[in-house]
Design goal:
Chain B: Belongs to the TRM112 family. The complex is a heterodimer of chains A (492) and B (122). With 492 residues, chain A is an alpha/beta fold. Chain A is 29% helix and 24% strand. The chains are: A alpha/beta (492), B alpha+beta (122). At the A-B interface, helix 9 and strand 11 of A face helix 1, helix 2 and strand 4 of B.
């Protein structure tokens, strides 16, 4: 049976220097994924979601959330592994004023407080404010104001056994782009777990040797690995591996990794013997990928009987805005000629096959089919999917597949025109002959109507076309921009 | 390219019906040590086409894998170590994979198999 502590407020990762909260949509799904990873859910129960509560008067984008977790161990594991959670705390009290806070802390049962206040222990109290800097003097005054809590232990600022936090939010008038706070709220709690602050500085892209134009940001790559429930010994595959940034995060969490790319220069050569995908893994002392190969997601070379080998597939498919997708079978498709281009026999050995553009719809279809075949049941597919944004809302029709259930969708706004949504799907059923057959038909349909799909699915032109065509007149677009609220939490 | 990868790949040229297993053309083999993970090996064991692995490991100069297996062998550390070595530690650094049906050569260069098809093969 778990302990008495079941509700933990979550302080989400600190605000970025730009004073914009980041990746808001991603926070709850990440905690829920990690809760599943660390066994918070009864496997027989069907609903794998946590019970969340917002603090009184708080905006949904608030940095504070209450969440019910089954044990302190689960809470600690989640906090230590999470990318977006700053810390998880056992709440001893909260209030709209320091008087209310005192009342709440006094009412919190002694049997739950005293074990952490004993004379043999060491402790530290940190004062933290959200939206305003509190001076050193004010911090000390606030700590002294807590003298009604019977702290018996010694203060140790460096390496305390118990860390307590006094956290304050208030309506300071100007909110610097932070979510609006209606009313003052103060929390006091004991830290149960905190994030590993060394992780992201270690892996940040600017110190990585081999990078490509679309290398995945370290924070996002680790988040994707968390969404994919990566643990030691799992086999993780990235069909668009590029410079390996996603697999690096998976490998950090102990996974065996495999990656493929259609561009042989990226996977084989990099920028020389000390600047390639392998050297990136070496740089961090991570085990090398099990396999890197050149392959086409449209015509994957896996043997036909092979099923359910990967525990997770994580990728950022090329959606044709920053980098365009390519697939096998170039010239003949481009020219629209019927007869295949035949490579002369004497040129076959060193022939470099041309590739054709790969439309997003087809790419995603192939990805889902591959994942349905190659993931174990219960395995996760985590990938980015681009969406055009109209009127600040997005069309939430995401790709689906009979083998998969959508677990989470988190939007990251990239421009006024388009967002990318991180989709997390779990494989719920086996890949049947019927599904294989219909995927094959679809594959042929794509091949026959190649040009049509390219035109229909051209995200690049939608993102880069002139504003007038998109918004129906420059004056309209100007006025609609002005109407937008100042706080735009999802912008990054 | 490790033999785990070899065991998963086939020739997917249009019209080819039995593209597995790919024959190995070995120019250069390197051995790289990999951390032993028994759980991973146990998971992989059921997915592996054993004969293809045995033949491939022999082509790479490693003849210690038994011809026949049964699940009880997974209890033996000695077997797991051999399996681990063949599956993960032998690399084909230079060479090729040959389609058993058409003889098409998929080059392996700097350890990377190039499985991309020509225009007239898709």
């Amino acid at each position: 049976m778990c302990g008495h502590v079941t509700v933990y407020p979550i302080r989400v990762k600190d605000i970025a220097s730009s004073c914009v909260l980041r990746l808001l949509d991603y926070r709850k799904p990440e905690v829920e994924s990690l809760a599943e990873l660390f066994g918070a859910f009864d496997s027989s129960a069907n609903h794998n979601s946590l019970e969340w509560r917002l603090p009184l008067h708080h905006h949904p984008d608030s940095p504070f959330h209450f969440v019910r977790l089954p044990s302190e161990d689960v809470a600690r594991n989640i906090a230590n592994r999470s990318i977006l959670v700053k810390g998880i705390y056992e709440p001893w009290g909260e209030g709209s004023s320091y008087e209310e806070l005192e009342e709440a802390i006094r009412a919190y049962p002694d049997e739950w407080k005293l074990p952490y206040l004993s004379s043999e222990s060491t402790f530290k109290i940190t004062v933290d404010s959200f939206g305003k800097v509190i001076s050193f003097q004010e911090q000390n005054d606030r700590i002294r104001g807590l003298s009604y809590i019977p702290f018996k232990g010694r203060v140790n600022l460096r390496n305390p056994e118990h860390k307590f936090w006094l956290m304050e939010t208030d309506n300071y008038g100007s909110n610097n782009g932070l979510p609006p706070i209606v009313q003052r709220r103060i929390f006091f709690g004991r830290e149960v777990g905190a994030a590993d602050r060394k992780l992201l500085p270690t892996y940040q892209l600017k110190s990585r040797t081999y990078l490509g134009p679309t290398a995945m940001d370290a924070e996002m790559a680790f988040l994707m690995a968390n969404q994919a429930l990566v643990t030691p010994g799992k086999l993780v595959y990235d069909p668009f591996v590029g410079t390996g940034s996603i697999l690096i995060a998976a490998s950090h969490f102990g996974a065996m990794t495999m990656g493929a790319d259609i561009d042989i220069r990226v996977v084989r050569d990099g920028r020389g013997p000390d600047c390639n995908v392998w050297s990136n893994f070496k740089q961090y002392g991570l085990p090398m990928p099990i396999s890197l190969l050149r392959a086409d997601n449209n015509l994957p070379p896996w043997r036909p009987g092979l099923r359910e080998v990967f525990d997770a597939i994580i990728c950022d498919p090329p959606y044709g805005v920053r980098a365009g997708g390519r697939k096998s079978g170039g010239r003949k498709l481009l020219k629209g000629t019927v007869g295949p281009y035949t490579v002369p026999d004497d040129k076959r050995t060193d022939h470099i096959p041309s590739t054709a553009p790969y439309s997003l719809v087809e790419c995603v279809h192939d990805l889902l089919d591959l994942a349905a075949r190659m993931l174990v049941v219960g395995g996760r597919l985590v990938f980015f999917y681009p969406v055009l944004r109209e009127d600040d809302s997005i069309d939430s029709h995401y790709p689906d597949h009979p083998c998969f259930k959508l677990v989470a969708s988190c939007e990251q706004i990239l421009s006024f025109r388009y967002s990318r949504v991180l989709l997390t799907m779990v494989k719920t059923g086996p890949y049947t002959e019927d599904i294989a057959e219909s995927a094959k038909m679809k594959h042929l349909e794509f091949k026959e109507n190649h040009l049509k799909w390219l035109e229909d699915g051209n995200l690049h032109s939608a993102v880069f076309s002139p504003a007038d065509a998109q918004l129906g007149g420059a004056s309209d677009s100007k006025s609609s921009k002005e109407l937008k609220p100042k706080y735009r939490g999802k912008y990054v | 390219m490790r033999l785990l990868t070899h065991n998963m790949l086939s020739s997917n040229i249009k019209g080819v019906t039995s593209g597995f297993p790919l024959r190995l053309e070995v120019e250069k083999v390197v051995e790289k040590q990999v951390d032993f993970n028994a759980d991973f090996l146990n998971n992989m064991f059921v997915k592996i086409e054993w004969k293809a692995l045995v033949d491939a490991s022999r082509a790479m100069g490693y003849a210690d894998l038994p011809d026949q297996t049964e699940p009880s062998m997974l209890d033996s550390d000695e077997f797991l170590k051999k399996f681990h070595h063949a599956l993960l530690e032998l690399h084909l650094e230079e060479g090729a994979l040959i389609c058993p049906e058409t003889g098409r050569r998929f080059p392996v260069n700097k350890g990377i198999p190039n499985m991309l098809l020509h225009e007239d093969e898709v």
